[in-house]
Write a structure and sequence with these properties.
Blueprint lengths: L10 E5 L28 H13 L4 E5 L9 H7 L8 E6 L7 E3 L2 E2 H8 L3 E5 L5 H8 L4 H14 L3 E7 L9 H11 L2 E5 L18 H12 L3 E2 L10 E4 L6 E5 L13 E4 L5 E2 L3
Parallel strand pairs: 1-2, 1-12, 2-3, 3-6, 6-7, 7-8, 8-11
Antiparallel strand pairs: 4-5, 9-10, 10-11, 12-13
Helix pairs in contact: 2-3, 3-5
């Protein structure tokens, strides 16, 4: 399957819900609470059928998203059926991390159950290590749960865990270095992401925007010139660098300032109500 620009589409982001247990100011702020009627959301069977069709057209990588996907009941059983689809080689999950450490059986956390079901990689949102700032950004006091969720994901043994931090001037620019040290201590891949216009909130104003180049300069002021990792690739759009004197990589996603951001895109998005979109 190819788009009009000749990109071979091999990656499908699958949203299974529009619900979320947080209210991040840059994504789903408190004032935007109109959920889709439940009857408009695809059933798991409908979603699996569409994934099968996508696989027949050449899609081999699926990432489960939301909303917050872990808020939907039955997600573990749903995920368990995705690897059974012929052609599927990679299954990932994007989450805010708040529910990963939850015990769903006496013997398993949510993270362990997802790993056993076939999830190979997890992306976890973490914009700050400051609990008070976290509450301001997300509208919820779940910072401790996220840290527990990250540690639960590590214990579960996923093939890869990435931390995603959205850059916000006036909110978390002082957190870049602490986040790097946090990721280093846990041997995790950290990515800094430019704020994208996905909702009409005050945080999208020009004064709140921080470019990845500015973030990179800030990081280099502490660690020295970052070393480009030209051979390192993941399924995502990040540009990776090595921190001098360390075996640690940090990624930057210039969704707004990188003129070539869409150049090699191989993704489609399936919304929870069955719409297919060529972008996030």
């Amino acid at each position: 399957m190819q788009d009009h620009y000749g990109h071979r589409i091999s990656y499908l982001r699958v949203s299974i819900t529009d619900r979320c247990n947080e209210r991040c100011s840059y994504c789903m702020p408190q004032e935007l609470q109109e959920w889709l009627p439940r009857h408009e959301i695809l059933t798991y069977e409908e979603t699996l059928r569409l994934i099968r069709i996508a696989a027949e057209l050449g899609v081999s990588n699926v990432r489960i998203t939301g909303g917050e996907p872990l808020t939907r009941r039955g997600i573990v059983d749903f995920v368990r059926r995705v690897p059974e689809i012929p052609g599927m080689t990679s299954i990932g999950l994007s989450t805010n991390g708040t529910l990963l450490a939850r015990e769903i059986t006496p013997a398993n956390t949510m993270a362990e159950a997802l790993r056993d079901a076939g999830v190979q990689s997890v992306n976890i949102s973490l914009d700050t290590l400051d609990g008070a700032v976290y509450s301001q950004i997300t509208g919820r006091d779940f910072h401790a749960q996220v840290i527990d969720g990250i540690d639960a994901a590590i214990a579960a043994g996923f093939d890869q865990i990435k931390l995603n931090a959205v850059l916000m001037r006036g909110r978390n620019e002082d957190q870049l270095l602490p986040l790097i040290e946090f990721a280093a201590a846990r041997n995790l891949l950290l990515r800094f992401i430019e704020l994208m216009p996905v909702s009409t909130t005050e945080v999208l104003s020009e004064s709140n925007f921080m470019s990845v180049m500015e973030a990179k300069r800030l990081v280099e002021s502490a660690y020295g010139s970052l070393i480009p990792e030209t051979e390192f690739r993941t399924n995502g759009p990040a540009t990776y660098y090595q921190i001098p004197g360390r075996a640690q990589r940090v990624g930057f996603i210039g969704a707004m300032t990188n003129m070539h951001f869409c150049e090699n895109c191989n993704k489609l998005r399936l919304t929870c109500d069955g719409k297919l979109r060529p972008c996030l």
